[in-house]
Amino acid sequence: MEHNQQQISLDLPESVRNHERGQYAMVFSLLVILALLTISVWLQHRNAVEKTIQQTRNLTQVLSLQLEAEFDRVEGVLHFVEYMLQTMPREHRTFATGNRTKQQELMKDRLRILKNSFDGIEAINYFDNGGNLIFSSKPQAESANIADRPHFQLFKANPQITRTFSDIITARTTGLRSLAQTRAVRDDHGNMLGLVSALIPMEWIDSKLAGIDTGEGGVVLLRNSETTVLLSRFPRYNEADFNQPLPVDNPIRRRIDGGERAGELKYTASTDAETRLGSFQRLTNYPFYFQAAMAEAHYLEGWRQYARVVTLITLLLMVTFALILWRMTRIQAAQQQAVTSLAASELKFRSLFNKSQDEIYLHNVDGNILDVNPAATAGSGYSHEQLLTMSVYDLWPDDSGKDEITSQWRSWAVGEGTHLEYQHVKADGSRYYVDIITNKIDYDNKQLILAILRDITSRKNDEKALQNSARSLQRNNADLLRLGEVMAHHFQESTRRMATLARMVHNHPCADTDPDSRQALLYIDEQANRLSQLVRRVQRYLELDESAPGITVATAVRALIHQTLASSAAVDADLHIATDLPDLPLPVARLRRILSIVFNNIGHYRRDEVPVTIQVSVVDEHDNLELHIADNGSGIDPAHREQVLELFTNLAPGKNTGSGLALARRIMRLAGGDLRLEDGIDGGIAVVLTFGG
What angle do CA 362, 366, 371 make, to 5 degrees? Predict the structure, then answer.
């Protein structure tokens, strides 16, 4: 008693320490998981931000390149007009000698042809140094003066300037909202002779911005980089913002004024109080910049959903860990065992997972391989690049059935598939068996075939070795039985003769004169009878193993079918059995159990006033053996045939427990075969017992 108490006192502190270590481990695990979840949320947020920045940066760069090219094109047009003004008097005699009206008509035609040759130009005008309209591409343009326009005054005030742009103006020659791209015409001394102007309609620029998708709440705009005046924006919002510069303290204005040509920014718009993230890009040769931004509510929508899911998972984890810790506190010994079991299960799972090398192929319905995993390259011996140039048919030993398989793939609906075993050919020409599960999926708006392969060559070799061992064992058992029969014959014959001779001597008169001889003869007779009984028992013991491997005689199979039917609910059935029944690799007791289940079901589900007919047939081909038992009963709907093979599934309540067919299939599967249901006689059902090759 003292020893037990001492043992308890010694074990208790260690148990408490183990319990505390388990609690610390649980808390540490929870913290690690929470940290990982937090990091994943942060990474998702960062990815969303980086993706938005990249998208808006690409948008601004594309817009900048497009508008830069348009301005270059317009600049070339203005250069050509200036050249026309300089060369027209020398090259066109009518222009040089004609009056003002004639000159205007000639220039109008030239400018109109030039203007119509370029999209995005509403009008081309030439003004003299007083701002008066001299030539215009507009046929009905009236006289106009732009001396009060800021861009004209800028040319007058600064002889060094040869090119400038206006803000948004209502053109006096067209009456449309336009952006004027202008170029000064000067003499060799820098004196201003006139002004060439191309009117770019704002509607044309607005349409460029309207074609940009920045998502719900997003915005894209164009500003003058020198004055920060707003020229175009989509969506438009407040019209009063146009032709207005940014405040001096605006962050983007500071960056533009500081010489930055491109960058990213996050801001809260004063127009709608919407927080946005975007990019800006200045044009290289012209005083403009584009800005594209997406609303935070839009580009973080996916991240917020992910964060909500992670938050829910976190709460569930915290509740779960709290319950586990509470359970550990209440039942210390049980929790320790649970932790040990969990650790063992986790180790086993990780070991199995790390060793799993299933091959995965993704291909189209024509068999062309689109993608594979590393296990596929390791299993097939081909490189990833080689497999992507191949078809799955290239991995088959031959292309027989190719057209049928391709047609089957095409006819499948999404989610439909199959399961089969086949051979594949490696890159070195060797073959190996694979278990293939295929399924049709919808991937990237395409219907593809996903195939998962597992190398079962070792299993196939083991199955063949097991079959060879079974055949060898069967032969040995037969030899042993034959030996037993021979030995029994010789032993029985010898003991019979010995007993006969003993009785003959015992009945001789001389035996009465010698009591010792008479006693010896009685002993010999007794031992002979005992030896005969022993031989019979040994013979019966050997006969017990004769049927263990299965029923191997056709007459025995036929007799078993008749016997089982005679004791079933379908005893009065009209039975038809195939002429030649093969050997069945199934023990008698198990086959009798299956037949009893099948025949009883036939009797229970027979049709009223219709005689029961049962046909037993055999299909033996391609190393596969099938025993078909078909009836003309009420049958089973094809949609429910797989269901009735599940345990306790009964489509007609009250007739049986619903476990018979499930038990029969389990017996077959334990024996290495299977059981399935097919169409029977006149709407009945057929039970098919399959024995693998």
Answer: 20
User: Which residues touch 133 (CB under 8 Å, ≥6 apart)?
Assistant: 125, 126, 127, 141, 143, 144, 145, 146, 172, 173
To 10 degrees, the CA torsion angle through 129, 132, 135, 138? 140
> What is the distance between the alpha carbons of residues 110 and 25, in angstroms, rounded to a whole number?
87
The rounded distance, in Å, linking the Cα atoms of 5 and 212 is 83
Give how far the C-alpha of residue 344 lies from the chain's centroid of Cα atoms, to the nearest Å.
Answer: 30
Evaluate the omega torsion of the peptide bond into residue 235 and state whether it is cis, within 30 degrees of 0.
yes
CA distances (Å), origin 378, targets 383, 384, 454? 8, 9, 12
What's the predicted TM-score (pTM) here?
0.45
Strands 613-621 and 574-577: parallel
Measure the CA–CA gap between 180 and 166, rounded to whole angstroms: 5
pLDDT tens readout for residues 368-425: 999 989 988 888 899 999 999 999 888 888 877 788 888 889 999 988 988 888 888 8
Pairwise pLDDT comparison (238 vs 500), residue with the higher score: 238
Q: Which two tokens stand for residue 17?
A: 């320490």
pLDDT at 342 over 60: no
Rg, the chain, Cα only:
49
Give the sign of the dihedral formed by CA 233, CA 238, CA 242, CA 244: negative
The pair of structure tokens assigned to 3 is: 């020893």
What is the pLDDT confidence band of residue 13, given thresholds at 50, 70 and 90? low
